[in-house]
Specification:
The structure is a single chain. By secondary structure, the protein is α+β, with helices and mostly antiparallel strands. The protein has three domains: 73 residues, Winged helix-like DNA-binding domain superfamily/Winged helix DNA-binding domain (Arc Repressor Mutant, subunit A), CATH 1.10.10; 163 residues, no CATH class; 90 residues, no CATH class. It contains 18 helices and twelve strands. β5 and β6 form a beta hairpin. It starts with 5 loop residues before the first strand and ends in a 5-residue tail after the last helix.
Length: 367
């Protein structure tokens, strides 16, 4: 691997913009964007919708329909964090990664008595859902009426547990597109055969894991094995084994000598779309360009890291990217009469960059 090309931080940032479809949005259905990325961080649902729209030449067009037709769902597939996933892969995600989240929450589940309430909570929820998709609050009320709650956090952990065992998922968008209605997986995502959660003896890693590692490295690269392992909540050894089965990713190195992996065409795409990639991009909170990596040092100066997640509370602010680097945060004016762009640059923006940011703001997808 000594002959692997060496990329500077700017080149890595621009290549990631190309890989993620931000430099040149694709003609693609919303579910195809989600599938290409592997999954889309969706703690903040409105932000996740913008993330998908930014990667499509059609923007937000057809996005609601993809949810309402059951082609995209939202659940907790990994790291105890909500993501958008292609509906037909929901069971495969949960079969492989769900048990890892269950294991990581064992103590809290035991404290809240989740396992002994789970069957009753499932029956109560499915009964309520016979009348059609329902908001989470309706299921919480049904559980409360059935005497299943009574402790802070129990409603959340019952909902989480029933998502992890593929009983429930979040499907159609609510009227304002700021939340989703809960649906039963059995009826909303019918039929797809489950892939094995574990590989047969001697087979290395499950095909589904190989597929996800491929998608991650091709859509997020240049990225490291450590980044991929963190993203999918898998052991690094599993990711390395999957990487050994891929023939459509190549190695590069950063200036520090760290090995990174990406799709070979990404390097050419980054060169072709360099000017567009190097322009100003406004990204929503929790976008994969930021959250998709454990090591963000290639695109973000460490001295500014606290400014994108103030207080280290896990709530990320919308970011401004220019030249392949995160250079500030942004928001909307608080007053209804003045909802325009509010920039918080890490260093003073030139007039040219501010105008570019205003143009990017005007192009943001609106559902």
């Amino acid at each position: 691997m000594s002959s692997a090309p060496v990329l500077g931080d700017r080149e890595i940032g621009l290549a990631r913009l190309a890989a993620q479809g931000l430099a040149r949005p694709r003609e693609a259905a919303p579910e195809d964007v989600v599938r290409a990325l592997g999954a889309v961080q969706a703690q903040d649902l409105p932000g996740a919708l913008v993330s998908v729209g930014l990667r499509r030449s059609a923007g937000a067009a057809g996005l609601r329909e993809a949810f309402d037709a059951g082609r995209i769902v939202r659940t907790w597939p990994m790291r105890g964090t909500l993501h958008l996933v292609p509906a037909e892969e929901l069971r495969a995600w949960l079969a492989v990664l769900g048990p890892r989240t269950v294991s990581s929450t064992t103590a809290r589940r035991r404290e809240l008595g989740i396992d002994e309430r789970l069957d009753a909570a499932r029956e109560t929820a499915l009964t309520a859902l016979r009348h059609g998709p329902q908001p989470r609050e309706r299921l919480h009320a049904a559980w409360d009426e059935a005497g299943l709650l009574g402790a802070p956090g129990r409603a959340y952990h019952l909902m989480l547990a029933l998502h992890l065992d593929a009983s429930l998922c979040m499907g159609p968008l609510a009227g304002n597109a700021r939340d989703q209605l809960v649906v039963p997986v059995e009826h909303w995502v019918p039929g797809a055969a489950e892939e094995p959660a574990h590989a047969p003896a001697g087979a290395g890693v499950p095909p589904v894991v190989v597929r996800w590692v491929r998608r991650y490295l091709r859509s997020h690269g240049p990225a490291s094995v450590a980044d991929a392992a963190r993203w999918a909540a898998l052991p690094r050894s599993t990711v390395r084994a999957a990487l050994g089965m891929l023939d459509d990713v190549v190695a590069v190195r950063d200036r520090g000598g760290q090995e990174l992996w990406c799709a070979p065409e990404v390097l050419a795409d980054a060169a072709r779309t360099g000017r567009r990639a190097a322009g100003v991009h406004l990204l929503p909170p929790f976008d994969e360009y930021v959250l998709g990596y454990g090591d963000r040092s290639h695109v973000l100066d460490g001295q500014h890291a606290a400014r994108i997640v103030p207080g280290a509370n896990g709530v990320f602010k919308p970011t401004v990217v220019a030249g392949g680097r995160i250079v500030g945060t942004w928001g909307r004016g608080r007053r209804a009469s003045s909802p325009g762009l509010v920039l918080e640059p890490f260093e003073e923006f030139s007039a040219t960059r501010r105008r570019a940011a205003e143009r990017a703001f005007a192009r943001l997808p609106v559902l």
